[in-house]
Structures are given as C-alpha cells and as structure tokens.
Amino acid sequence: MPGQTLFARGDEGDFAFVVLSGQVDVFVDVGEGDRQKVREASNGDLIGEMSIIANRPHQKTAIAKTSTESLRIGKQCFLKVIEGCPKTSANVISHLGHRLSEETRSMENPVS
Questions:
Q1: What is the CATH number of the domain that holds 61?
Q2: Half-sphere CA count of 83, side-chain side, radius 13 A
Q3: Kind of pairing between the strands at 46-47 and 15-21
Q4: Which domain holds residue 36?
Q5: How many domains, the chain?
Q6: CA distance 112 to 60
Q7: pTM of structure
Q8: Eight-class DSSP state of 12
Q9: How many angstroms from the chain centroid is the CA of residue 68?
Q10: Backbone angles phi, psi at 85, to 5 degrees
Q11: In tens digits, what is the pLDDT along the chain, a chain of 112 residues?
Q12: Which of 11, 48, 53, 91 gives the lowest tally of CB atoms within 10 Å of its CB?
C-alpha cells in the first residue's frame, strides 16, 4: 500500500526485504523531522540488509511509494544464505559497494 513504512530508522535490524514489485523510497534523517531520499528500490532490489550485516538497528526508513509486494527475510535466513554460498556473499558485497557509492552521490545531489 502506498505510504506504508516497511521499516523505520531505529527499528531492530533483524530483517531485510526483497522488493518483488512496486517501488519503495529509502530515506535518511537529515535533521529534526526532516529526511532526504537516497534511493528508490524496485523489482528485485534488496533493502535493509546492512542492518543485519552490521548487527545494528536500521539507519534508514523505507516507505512504499506505490502498491508494493515484498518478501521479508529474517536475520537467521539471510545469514544462512550468505554463509552457505560464497557466490551469493560476493554478489551481496558487490551490491553493497555499488549502492554505497550511489547513495553517497545522491546525498550530494538529492533525488526528488
């Protein structure tokens, strides 16, 4: 449902989502009650996984932009997949590096 929060900054980081359909906006807090969009996730994108990897609460907020279908992945399941499949681990690391670069760039040039 548009406007639905999948996770908010500060939520326990024991889950991630794969966006199966629709669009999800991802925001960072930039001040008192203000936030800045850093990316738009869509079909096949993984969001929230950094909290699992870093073992800390979510640092961003994800809100459905459109009607969205997503798959919630628990921490234990995510870690089993990462630990059991080196190719998947390498893909996740590559994905995280690429996304970190994109989000850093978007902080310099905000997405509307």
A1: 2.60.120.10
A2: 8
A3: antiparallel
A4: 5-108
A5: 1
A6: 17
A7: 0.82
A8: -
A9: 14
A10: -140, 100
A11: 899 999 999 999 999 999 999 999 999 988 888 999 989 999 999 999 999 999 999 999 999 999 999 999 999 999 998 889 888 888 888 878 887 887 777 767 765 5
A12: 91
